[in-house]
Write a structure and sequence with these properties.
The complex is a heterodimer of chains A (131) and B (113). Chain A is mainly α. Chain A is 70% helix and 3% strand. Chain B is mainly alpha-helical and 113 residues long. Chain B has one domain: Fumarate reductase/succinate dehydrogenase, transmembrane subunit (3 helical TM bundles of succinate and fumarate reductases, Up-down Bundle), CATH 1.20.1300.10. Chain B is built from four helices and no strands. The N and C termini of chain B lie far apart (38 Å). The chains are: A mainly alpha (131), B mainly alpha (113). Chains A and B meet through helix 2, helix 3, helix 4 and helix 5 of A and helix 1, helix 2, helix 3 and helix 4 of B.
């Protein structure tokens, strides 16, 4: 090893701004804040539910309004395009399915994920009595 | 030991990532419905309470929240590194403590329903 190795000066805080792929990577990383936010919101909802009908109704009332609608709509779009869809896209790479000598085509695995996702979503809306 | 820990954390991250990818759009959709004033019948107190009071309902809610917080914890640890915070041991302690508290609170509230 050289006594004076050359270290390329790379910023540890803004390194991802150099390259489009890195920027997209960071945009995907940020969906973790949405996971935190909605997990905490739902745990808070559980605390209201465990407490009393009044607190539950108060929680539901506190969540209504135009501002919340805009926030949730944007969060939904952001989550879909930077978490759900990329996760499905990488599924065949993370869990390739071997069939004898061949591999199941990637498109089958990806389409399977979308079909399962639509089924799960319908189940949740049905359980919640949305239709 | 280090490898075993890594496998557990990584397993929770992968399971949580898959679960959030599948479940969170619908969850956010429900919050959107609530925000718009069209609160679904299943979210009226009596109905959601009955759901959370059943063991199946408790199990569903617990698994979703448990995996979500542990997935988020692992992701936050990486995000901290990506934004230049290089005190990984401290960050790891903080995010996994957060996940453990989230898990305990979820269990506590669910058992109280």
């Amino acid at each position: 090893m050289s006594r004076n190795p050359y270290v390329r000066p790379i910023s540890t805080t803004t390194w991802y701004m150099r390259n489009g792929r890195y920027k997209v990577y960071m945009l995907r990383e940020l969906t973790s804040f949405l996971v935190v936010f909605y997990s905490l919101l739902t745990i808070f909802a559980l605390s209201a539910l465990a407490d009393s009908a009044d607190r539950w109704n108060g929680f539901i009332a506190s969540q209504q309004g135009k501002g919340m609608m805009v926030f949730h709509a944007l969060a939904l779009l952001y989550f879909l395009f930077f978490q759900t869809f990329p996760w499905f896209k990488l599924a065949p790479k993370a869990m390739p399915v071997q069939l004898g000598e061949k591999r199941l085509p990637d498109s089958y695995i990806i389409i399977g994920h979308y079909v399962a996702w639509i089924a799960v979503s319908i189940c949740i809306f049905w359980l919640a009595g949305a239709f | 030991m280090a490898i075993a820990k890594k496998a557990v954390v990584w397993g929770l991250f992968a399971a949580g990532g898959t679960l959030t990818a599948f479940v969170f759009p619908a969850l956010i959709g429900l919050y959107l419905l609530i925000a718009s004033g069209n609160v679904p019948d299943g979210l009226q107190f009596d109905q959601i309470h009955a759901f959370a009071a059943s063991w199946l309902g408790k199990a569903c809610l617990f698994i979703v929240l448990f995996l979500s917080v542990w997935h988020a914890a692992h992701r936050l640890r990486v995000v901290a590194h990506d934004f230049g915070i290089r005190k990984d041991a401290l960050v790891a302690k903080a995010v996994y403590t957060f996940a453990a508290i989230g898990t305990l609170l979820t269990a506590f509230y669910l058992l109280g329903i």
